[in-house]
Specification:
three-stranded antiparallel beta sheet; 1 helix; 94 residues
Length: 94
């Protein structure tokens, strides 16, 4: 069963690959996301946030889903905040 899953994953990954130019002229609006500015408060409990960004313009169609979590270590003083893009989809034109 693991072999079939790996084969499925490998073929779908290869089937959806594109030639992408890594240069600032080709980057879309979601290529370098700016972290959200907050009021610098630390939550009392652990928080999770699921968000999505999309842009469908001429020559660039991007969309992604992000998971953000903030874990307070010392209430009101220290916290750890991390953001993960869980799904990314982009399409560019040459």
């Amino acid at each position: 069963m693991k072999k079939y899953f790996f084969l499925f994953f490998l073929t779908t990954t290869i089937a959806h690959t594109q030639n992408i130019n890594y240069s600032p002229a080709y980057f879309g609006p979601n290529a370098n996301p700016v972290p959200p500015f907050t009021d610098a408060t630390i939550p009392v409990k652990t928080t999770f946030q699921l968000s999505a960004n999309y842009f469908f313009g001429y020559g660039d169609q991007t969309g992604n889903a992000n998971l953000t979590t903030e874990i307070p270590f010392i209430t009101g003083r220290v916290s750890f905040k991390a953001c993960w893009p869980i799904i990314e989809r982009h399409q560019v034109t040459e």
